[in-house]
Amino acid sequence: MLKFTPLLLALIYGLVAWRFSTWRLKRELDEKSSELADPRLHALTRQMAQALDLPRIRVNLYEIPAINGLAAPDGRIFLTRGFYNAYRQGQVTAEELASVIAHELGHVALGHSRRRMIDFSGQNALRMGLTMVIGRFIPFVGPMLVNAAMSLLTAKLSRKDEYEADAYAAALLSKAGIGVGPQISLFTKLEALSGARGAQSTAWLHSHPATAERIAAIRALDKGWNARD
């Protein structure tokens, strides 16, 4: 029984960390957000809601300066103030913001948002457990190897989710009559908008797929759909 004590403690820690992270995120979103009321965006979300046979799609404005979209574990969709300001300043179009909303809807519909929180706690527990065990046999270097391996696993799972959400968004935008053009054009702007112009590292270490690969995947989907029409 004593052999498994570190792993049990790690699992308990992971569960507690997950519950605390979920509670903290919900509280922050509640305190720093309100429903987004924009006529042009409302018209576009109404088109997407009709395509999904939903009465409406509520989008919330998250009051932080970063440029991002967010799907909360409870299913709510958020655009950040930074993203909305970029739209108001003419840096992105309403249709491009609609593609962000469609992407985040994909995360919700495919269960990514809730699963990411569970994965986060499970990976933390596994990281801690492996570090305790391997660290006994390979001091110093062992924990570093565990952290590197878990980071690679996390990045791989995240990239898979992003591809799936991209495909969902492309299908929804096409069905809603908006098309994939705004989705593709936004990808070409995101790096500059977010200021992510630092040194390029190996693509498979990133939590998101390379922009060119995402665009190619969307174009391939669109081409396939058009070929069947």
From TrEMBL:
<keyword id="KW-0482">Metalloprotease</keyword>
<dbReference type="GO" id="GO:0016020">
    <property type="term" value="C:membrane"/>
</dbReference>
<comment type="similarity">
    <text>Belongs to the peptidase M48 family.</text>
</comment>
<feature type="domain" description="Peptidase M48">
    <location>
        <begin position="37"/>
        <end position="220"/>
    </location>
</feature>
<keyword id="KW-0378">Hydrolase</keyword>
<keyword id="KW-0479">Metal-binding</keyword>
<dbReference type="GO" id="GO:0004222">
    <property type="term" value="F:metalloendopeptidase activity"/>
</dbReference>
<keyword id="KW-0645">Protease</keyword>
<dbReference type="InterPro" id="IPR051156">
    <property type="entry name" value="Mito/Outer_Membr_Metalloprot"/>
</dbReference>
<dbReference type="Pfam" id="PF01435">
    <property type="entry name" value="Peptidase_M48"/>
</dbReference>
<dbReference type="GO" id="GO:0046872">
    <property type="term" value="F:metal ion binding"/>
</dbReference>
<dbReference type="GO" id="GO:0051603">
    <property type="term" value="P:proteolysis involved in protein catabolic process"/>
</dbReference>
<protein>
    <submittedName>
        <fullName>Peptidase M48</fullName>
    </submittedName>
</protein>
<dbReference type="InterPro" id="IPR001915">
    <property type="entry name" value="Peptidase_M48"/>
</dbReference>
<keyword id="KW-0862">Zinc</keyword>
